[in-house]
Amino acid sequence: MDLIKNWTDDLRYLPYDQWDTSYQTALNEIVRGSKWRQGYHIQPESGLLNDPNGFSYFNGKWQLFYQLYPMGPVHGVKSWAHVSSSNLVDWASEGIALLPDSAYDQHGVYSGSGIVIDDELVLAYTGNVRDSNWQRGSYQMLAHMTNDGEIIKDEQPIIPAPPKGYTHEFRDPQVFFYQEKYWLLIGAQTEALEGKVLVYSGDSLESLHFSGPLDFTNQSLGFMVECPNLVFIDEQPVFLFCPQGLSKKIMAYQNIYPNTYIVAETFETDRPSLTKPSPLMNLDYGFDVYATQAFNAPDGRALAVSWIGLPEVEYPSDSEGWAHCLSIIKELQLKDGQLYQKPVKELVELRQEQTPIEGKLVSRPLALAEKTNNCYELMLHFSDDSQGRLHLYSDMQRDHSFTIDFDTKNGMISVDRTHTSHTFAQEYGTTRSLALQKESPLSLQIFVDHSVCEIFVNGGQAVFTARVFPNEVEKNVYLEGTSGDFTGDFWCLRNMKND
User: Fold this and answer.
1) What is the pLDDT of residues 371-394, one digit of tens each?
2) Which residue among 10, 17, 51, 299 is the active-site one?
């Protein structure tokens, strides 16, 4: 079967049940044969995955949903796919949970969140509808999942239209309970084309009233804000969001759109505001993170998961009929007012064979691992006088590799995918860099999974996430440098169990 290359609006918005089942079967077969499929990351069976949604704990399991267009690696009419887990590591597919099949979501079940109320998981989402002139309407909807897994949509929206002065760019509701009230945050755009975050509150999700825009900055957030997400860590608010069109004078970034955060002192509910906010910070310093969703879990942790992919960017796996994945699950912590993101402790369940490594950095490249299956965890600790380069996804000659350069003497780390075999998104640059504290040791915890790499710096003080698409021979790990010592461990990782 030849993959569709000319995706018209008619094709993108064709209802799922009007596709020939043989097409879906053939597409799934092509995707299963992809050389870039992953072992332990959530990925679509076919087509395109994007924003994580409804991350929650319900009925004795972790519940997670994501945006899905199953017919191809493009943004078509979206549904919510559903996966569940008992350990935050192994995710079982529960099929499609929300289809675009009602009057208020027929052109797409867009992103949202989840909250447990009594004995139900309540899902809040944006319903996307186009009229005969292809003008968009946005409706904020609820659906209810029972203990037996049945999901029933409400017949009417809880918010039928944006407030006066705002456009149809009105989406991604986050719902949570705080100080005896239900709250809903949503991304919006003013008629003057300025991005805002709007706040609704009430005694129930069915009785919300508009409380105004969230006050947390006097700076322009660009033309739109997506995926607003407020969590509390040690009772302190941490606000994650995705501004589109943000001036680089406000925050330096290279990706088409950044995923950002602020840390505030309090969330004031009388006039919805975040007091004493920190400067705007980049949540991920790599190439490919967007639409991170976090929630306060019942075990006391703040857990987060990200879409590893970006809007309006084409990826090499498009040629194989699928696009994107979700990150591993991360725990959010605050240390001295700074946000740390750490891989959840449960991920040690993936570890298989362990190889300890140590040595001195020298100009001759050292082979830390050769002919791997590109499915591993690598932990490295460098002394405070280290200067060197780590090659991942490398051929034996190091002509093609994804590199990490580090200099602990001068306080610098950078990642570079210039010399990977399958380059893409080059208009946004092929390197990313971050200044670190000078003359301090450096630790790296690296998760590699076939075509994705997640790098946690100094215990999660910073994160670099990158998609990398290697050729068959690019499965080696080399380390070279000019000074310093290193120790560490290499683990082969097993694949996710999905049943």
Assistant:
1) 999 999 999 999 999 999 999 999
2) 51
Instruction: Determine contact, residues 283/261, Cβ cutoff 8 Å.
Output: yes
* pTM, 2 dp: 0.97
Instruction: Decide: residue 91, CB within 10 A, 0-12 exposed, 13-18 middle, 19+ buried.
Output: buried
In the numeric block, the tokens 């759109």 are attached to 257
φ, ψ dihedrals at 320, nearest 5°: -110, 10
β-pairing, 166-178 vs 181-190, is antiparallel
Alpha carbon distance 9, 137 (integer Å): 17
Sheet of strand 351-360: strand arrangement: 351-360, 485-493, 375-382, 442-449, 452-457, 462-467
CA distance 166 to 156: 21
* Residue 191 DSSP label: T
- pLDDT per position as a tens digit, 467-494: 999 999 999 999 999 999 999 999 999 9
- Phi, psi (deg, nearest 5) at residue 449: -145, 80
**What are the angstrom distances between the C-alpha of 377 and each of 47, 329, 351?**
28, 15, 8
CB atoms < 10 A from the CB of 275, how many? Answer: 12
Q: What is the pLDDT of residues 251-281, one digit of tens each?
A: 999 999 999 999 999 999 999 999 999 999 9
Has 51 been annotated as catalytic?
Answer: yes
149 φ/ψ sector (left φ>0, alpha ψ -120 to 50, else beta): left
d(CA 474, CA 121): 44
d(CA 97, CA 53): 11
Tell me how far apart the alpha carbons of residues 103 and 234 are, in angstroms, rounded to a whole number: 42
* N residues, the chain: 499
Cα angle 491-492-496, degrees, rounded to a multiple of 5 = 120
> Each residue of 58-76: pLDDT tens digit?
999 999 999 999 999 999 9
In this prediction, residues 83-92 reach a mean pLDDT of: 98
Other beta carbons within 10 angstroms of residue 448's beta carbon come to: 27
Q: Which residue has the tokens 């991170």?
A: 292
